[in-house]
Design brief:
It is found in: Cell inner membrane. It is a multi-pass membrane protein. This is General secretion pathway protein F. Belongs to the GSP F family. The chain is mostly helical and about 400 residues long. The protein has two domains: about 1-125, Receptor-associated Protein (Up-down Bundle); about 130-405, Type II secretion system (T2SS), domain F (Receptor-associated Protein, Up-down Bundle), CATH 1.20.81. The chain contains 17 helices and three strands. The chain has helices at about 25-35, 45-55, 65-80, 85-95, 95-110, 115-120, 130-140, 145-200, 205-220, 225-240, 245-255, 260-280, 285-295, 300-315, 320-325, 330-345, 345-405; strands at about 1-10, 15-20, 40-45. The protein has a three-stranded antiparallel sheet with strand order 2-1-3. The chain is globular. The relative contact order is 0.08.
């Protein structure tokens, strides 16, 4: 998806400036025109501007705000209020001006005859795939209120998990930041003074000490590289992810990285099982369900596997057989899906699997700090042992020579 910024005039004559995600400028234009908007200007945002907008955090909508929005929509629509009235009331109560403007645009589109799901599409950067897809399913199947509840529950689970992971990483992150700060202080300010003293004593410096001297000199001369390099790497990875090959490799790396893969893999399995349950209960056919789930997954490896499964089912394969041929799905999932198919309890099996993988993911996130903590302590200990050894070796040599003399 590409990001396009636009300036349009609506039916009331008001000028609106915003952005929309689409595959091409033609698709973006068609989407705006279908909403009854007169386009004054539209252009594709550069990759750099999109990245730096994210870095600066401008026009940000938090996931908690989207969860509240879904919950409020579900309650108010379930109480019998019309969608337009609901959107108006929610928009008036929202404190985030950017989200308020988005809700106003969505309300305006719905007033002009656009479906709610179509009105969400131009705001794909705010409303995640799972939100937009489930809303569309709810509209098509007459389970709009239930779909909104499912969206809110799913996003809340992801928010809770994200919070537990962040809490688990607080100590390791603090330890790493403190260590890097201490190392920088030693290499830039402390070591140079000690080295001058050692050189003044005429001591022959061992290899380890000479390496420390070179490292210290480089740290003093090129200190700014430590700031520029991480930012450059971040931007390059973001740009790389926007290519088809780059996205594939990044998604593959997420499933291979030690420790992180345990969380990501179980998250994807839980997402797959949960969405399969929701869509099957909603009455969608298996091939349509797999189409939607593939779009929601957000991981190329899983998307390709699910697309292959859908094609195999179309040609007569059972879901379990098709899953078994894809290595990304574990035996437990395949076995329970097979049981569900044979017993007619597929939705129940997917519900159990979703709970199982979510619990596994919670357990891993709870243990994350305990797993990383000894690694951080070991690395910190080795680094400082090297520095202290580099400083003590020449002093030891000096003391030895004095003793012999």
């Amino acid at each position: 998806m590409k990001l396009f910024t636009y300036q349009v005039v609506d039916a009331s004559g008001s000028t609106i400036k915003s952005s929309i995600e689409a595959e091409s400028i033609e698709e973006a234009t068609a989407s705006l025109v279908s909403r009854g908007l007169y386009i004054l200007k539209i252009s594709q945002s550069s990759n750099f501007s999109a990245i730096f907008e994210g870095l600066l955090g401008r026009k940000k909508v938090k996931r908690a705000e989207i969860i509240d929005l879904a919950n409020n929509l579900s309650v108010m629509v379930g109480a019998g209020l019309p969608l337009l009235t609901t959107l108006g009331d929610i928009g008036a109560a929202v404190t985030n001006p950017h989200l308020q403007a988005i809700i106003a645009e969505i309300k305006q589109s719905v007033e002009q005859g656009t479906s709610f799901s179509d009105a969400l599409e131009p705001h794909a950067r705010v409303f995640p795939d799972v939100f937009r897809r489930l809303v569309r399913v709810g509209e098509e199947t007459g389970s709009f209120e239930r779909s909104l509840k499912d969206v809110a529950e799913h996003l809340q689970r992801m928010e809770d998990l994200s919070g537990s992971i962040k809490r688990a990483l607080i100590y390791p992150a603090f330890a790493i930041a403190t260590t890097l700060g201490a190392l920088a202080f030693w290499m830039i300010y402390v070591l140079p003074k000690i080295i001058v003293t050692l050189k003044g004593l005429g001591v022959k410096l061992p290899l380890l000490t000479r390496i420390l001297i070179v490292t210290s000199n480089l740290s003093q001369r090129f200190w700014y590289v430590g700031i520029i390099l991480p930012i450059t790497l971040f931007v390059l990875i973001k740009l790389f992810k926007q290519t088809e090959r780059g996205r594939y490799l990044v998604d593959l790396a997420k499933l291979k990285l030690p420790i992180y893969k345990l969380i990501e893999y179980n998250r994807l399995l839980a997402l797959f099982a949960e969405q399969m349950r929701i869509l099957i209960v909603a009455g969608l056919t298996v091939d349509r369900t797999l189409n939607i789930v593939s779009d929601i997954m957000g991981n190329v490896i899983f998307q390709q596997a699910i697309t292959t499964i859908r094609d195999e089912i179309t040609y007569g394969s059972t879901i379990a057989e098709a899953l078994k041929r894809q290595k990304v799905f574990p035996p437990l999932l395949v076995r329970l899906v097979s049981v569900g198919e044979s017993s007619g309890t597929l939705d129940e099996q997917f519900s159990f699997l979703a709970r199982h993988y979510l619990k596994t993911m919670d357990d891993v996130s709870d243990k994350l700090g305990k797993i990383i903590e000894p690694l951080v302590i070991t690395v910190v200990g080795v680094l400082f042992a090297v520095i202290i050894s580099g400083l003590l070796l020449p002093i030891y040599d000096l003391v030895s020579k004095v003793g012999k003399g």
